[in-house]
Amino acid sequence: MKLLLILSLFASPIFASKFDVETYSTSLDFAQVKDVLATQKSKGSWCFGTSVRHNDQGWEHYADGWEVIDLEGNQLGYRKLGHPHNNEQPFTRSQCNIKIPANMSKVIVRAKCNKHGFGGKAMIVDLSNK
User: Fold this and answer.
1) 8-41: pLDDT as tens digits
2) Are 62 and 13 in contact (CB under 8 A)?
3) Which residues, 6+ apart, have CB-to-CB distance to 101 below 8 Å?
4) 94 burial type by CB count under 10 A (0-12 exposed, 13-18 middle, 19+ buried)
5) Structural domain boundaries in the chain
6) What is the model's pLDDT at position 20?
7) How many CA atoms, within 13 angstroms, populate the side-chain half-sphere of residue 88?
8) Facing residues of 32 across strands?
9) Residue 42 to residue 32: CA distance in whole angstroms
10) Torsion angles phi and psi, residue 118, rounded to 5
11) Residue 83 and residue 64: Cα distance in Å, rounded?
């Protein structure tokens, strides 16, 4: 009986580590992913062109990066955004040489800002069709 209880704890949703893409703020105070173009290169690495929308307000509050993560939330790649894009919204920036395990068919791309961090709309990218 004790073994069954221990095993049921590991199967409990409390321990689930799957990343939640359904819960996010639509406010432009949070960086929102608008579009992603993923392209696999000949050596197997990937390039991600990611369009981000955010209410950039100068250096005090701007979208400062986006990342590619697996479905559990582990970071696979990151693109630092070095300056505000006050008058360029949405804007697209690319990052290449991102290594995705061959058996992984879906990833998540999410953006962040320097004031609120992550919390805007993320996007699931299906790599099996690329």
Assistant:
1) 334 434 444 467 888 899 999 999 999 999 999 8
2) no
3) none
4) exposed
5) 27-129
6) 81
7) 10
8) 53
9) 30
10) -80, 165
11) 7
Q: How many CA atoms lie within 13 A of 24 on its CB side?
A: 22
The separation between CA 14 and the C-alpha centre of its own chain, rounded to angstroms, equals 22
Dist CA 102 CA 122 (whole Å) = 22
What is the spatial distance between Cα 29 and Cα 53, in angstroms, rounded to a whole number? 10
Q: How many Cα atoms occupy the beta-carbon half-sphere of 9 within 13 Å?
A: 5
> Could you tell me the two tokens for 130?
């690329």
Tokens of 33: 């992913």
| pLDDT tens readout for residues 41-70 | 878 899 999 999 999 999 999 999 999 999
In the block, tokens 């395990």 appear at: 101
Q: How far apart are CA 41 and CA 77, in angstroms?
A: 15
Quick check: 90 pLDDT over 90?
A: yes
Is 101 strand, coil or helix? coil
Q: Which CATH number is associated with domain 27-129?
A: 2.60.40.730
Give pLDDT, residue 22: 85
Q: Phi/psi of residue 110, each to 5°?
A: -135, 150
